Structure formats: C-alpha cells, structure tokens
Amino acid sequence: MLFTLCAASTIKNLRPSVILASGHAWGIAGAGICRFEERKLSRFGLMNVHRGNVFSILLIVASSIITFPANTQSLANKTVDGYRGIWFALGQPYPYGDKYSGGLGTYTAKHRPLAVYAPPVDKTFFVYGGTTGEKENHLLCMIGYYDHREDVVPKPVIVHDKQGVDDPHDNPSLQIDDKGYLWVFVSGRGRHRMGYKYKSKAPYDITAFELVTEEEMTYPQPWVYDDGSMLHFFTKYTGRRELYVETSADGTHWTKDRKLAGIRAPSEQEGGHYQVSGRYGNKVVTFFNRHPAGHPDKRTDLYFLQTTDRGEFWETVTGRSTGIPLTIVDGPARIFNYQVLDQNVYLKDVNFDREGNPICLYLTSAGHEPGPTNSPREFKVTYWDGARWQTHVVCETDHNYDMGSLFIEEDRWLTVLPSHTGPQHYGAGGELVMWESVNKGKNWRIVKQLTVNSPRNHGYVRRPLKATDPFYCFWADGDPEVMSISRLYMSDSQGKVKMLPYLMEKDFEKPVLLD
Questions:
Q1: 307 pairs with which residues across the strands?
Q2: Are 155 and 130 in contact (CB under 8 A)?
C-alpha cells in the first residue's frame, strides 16, 4: 500500500460515486472530496451492506486518498492457466440489489462481436474479460479458441493487461480479416482510459499481438468486409455519450472519426446513445436508442441507420438519405417512439433474415431500477419485413441487464436468454432458456432449458459470427449479490452445455460436458 496526497480538483473525468470502479482509490468524502456507496466498500470487506443507502466516510490518512498500485509489469502476450471471467459490481445499489453486477466476462452487449468462427482452421476464436484469480478482479483482455476438430481449448492468452482496472466496460471485441489475422479492439472508458487496437503477429495465431493504435474509443464494434477493409462503430464521451464511425482499408490506417448520432431535444444540453450493429454483405446496420438529456437510466426510443457503401453515405431502411450526424429526435431514422410509452430500451443483438432484412433483439421496461416495480420487462424483436417494421414480444424476464443472442436459421429463429429466475432472484442473469419461433418472431415457444439448479446466475450469452456447432454460443456465470468465481460456458444449437476449464494443467484441455 502507498499513500498519496490528492485534492478534489485533481480527480478529473471521474464521477465521485465511481472512483472505486478501478479498484485502486478510496477517498475522503467527509472532507468533500468524494462519496462512496456501501456496495463498493462491501466488496473490500469494509462493512456490512444496507441496500439503497449511500453515505460518506472520512479516512484519516495523510490528507486524502489511499492508493493501491497496479502491477507495474504488464502481463500482455502471456498465457493464463484457465478460463476465468471477471466479476464486477457497478456500485449503484437499490432495495433489490445493484443496478447490475455479477460475472461480466462477456459484457457488454455493445462490445461486438466477441467470437468469430474461422472455416479455414475450423476454430472459433473468442475474447472475454478475464482476471488473475478467483478472489481478484484485475481485468485482463483475453483471447482463446475452440478447436472443433479436436474438441479442445488452449490456455488463453492475455492481449492487453488493464493494469489494475476492474471494470468490464474495458472488455475487448474481436474480428478476423481476409488473411486470417486476428484483430482485438480493447475498449477504453470515456476520456480517462484509452482504447487500443491490436493485430495478431501471424494468421489464426493467438500467441502474440502487436499494438496498432491507442485512441479514445468505448464500446468497439468493428466489422470486416470480404476484402479485409473495415468499418468501426464506437462511442466517444462528447455530449455525454455519442456515436462515431471510422473506416480503414487495411486496419492500420484509419479515417478521421465521424459523428454518427448526437440526438437531443431543443431544450437539452446533452444527449447520448447506445447501439448494436451488424453486417450483411456490403450492408452494415446499427440500431440505437436515445438518452434524454444525456441520462442513460432514461434510455428510450429505437433508431436505425444503414450504409451500403462502406460508410460514405447513410440512409434509412428504405434508402432515404439522412446525412450524419443525426441530431433530431423525431427524424426519419426513428422507428419506434418508446418515450411516449414511458419505456426504457436495452439493446441486445442484431441479425438478418435470409434476404438480408435486419432484426433487433432488445428489452423494454418501465425504469432502470431492479426489482418487480419496473415490470413487465419484455424481450422483443423488431424486424423489417420488406415493407414495414414489425415488433413482437419474445418473453418476459426479471432484470434489465438480462442479455442473450438471436440466431436466424433457414426455417426458424432462436434466442438463448436468461429468462428463467436464477438462484439470485432479481439479480442480472438467471437460468438460460432456448426459445424458438417458426413464424418470423410472431410467436415463441420454449425448446429447452439449458441450465437448471445453477449455483450462480448465467448471463450475457454471445453469438459468434458464423456460429458453428458445438460452439454455437458462449457466456459467463457469477453471483450478482456477492463477489464470486465466474466460469465460462459454451453450448451447441441443441442446448448441450459444456464448461470451459477454470484451471488447466495441460496446454490443451477438453471442455467439460454438463449433464
């Protein structure tokens, strides 16, 4: 432990209530420097938690802040002896628990894609937020793969060591270019933690990566065209949270950032958005919501944009040119006015039907606080049928941050969702269920429950690009109520679940089939 002097004015770009998100600093709220929530202090064993209470403490040490130094030696390009997901709590407590918390190795929905199947080598490569040990939450941006021929995974590799950050908002995304090089986009967080782009030193090889860029970017969503050129959606903290796009012919040289959307009402000083995106051939699309006055807890509405010329021009689904950035609330890109219904919108996934028509999976609720008050929480799909937007309910769930994925097959749509109550009721995640629709989302039925009697909630189920059995989807578990171990899992399209090895004695081991 080391002690450093700090004045309130030196703590820049950090809201006082999230100073502990890095896991390094405690502050003197009684002296007016910062204010901490009990949930965060309880993670470090400082006191008992009384949900919903926020209070100030004064630590009489030197004059200000106790700092726990991060590792000075980076662990990048080193292997880890097992697949260990990171646990995290936001530290925004309510009577029914934190706004969200638990095993968040495959968080967020706005990091995408997290996995890509590579036919030339018959492997599914995937990234996740890992950590250094069962009782630690030092974030490591990890990569591994599943070998479909051998039914094994290697020891995962650290692409980027976050040097003591514990926040999975800094998790990575993944792409593979036309030559087989692996691209890992590591998210930053606003302006105080930068993002990074990495490229593997050899095709289809996870053993070593080189840094390409360091820049401001959060929630990376890179898409690679067939010729290896790229289009990258991301967020910058201008006007609170606004959407940007950049393009590259080779992944190394990028255009200037272009603002995609910064929508706000005339009376609002700030705005914001979250988005989920996808690619179908030369068409790249994004669905996004809107944060009135910049408040993400009031996220609402559903918007859509697409480009068919690699980001040069942007248009609605019918081809109406919009220009960018979008700034008007009730513009042609808005496809559903949820604000008039007092509904929040939480985006989950994007996919396409066989004609390339876009489909968005998302959740609506009456508010941001966990618990029964803001029910019903409904998973929905909004789908362009070629003539109009259609919206249908998939099922209900019990938490805004329950997250799953949408799979489109020839004659059916599938979703894998944490829609059944898990062991930690009203916490993020739950028991996983596979739902099926055979009439383009109008009606849904349960095909199989993937997890039963679990010790910890499961959540953030992710669909690989070109998803191929048996690595059809993957996710992490974790206890949202207390810091816990977090394991990673995979499933095939029939709901057969395997657990990735948490501790590995050999360089390659088989995932364990669960009954």
A1: 284
A2: no
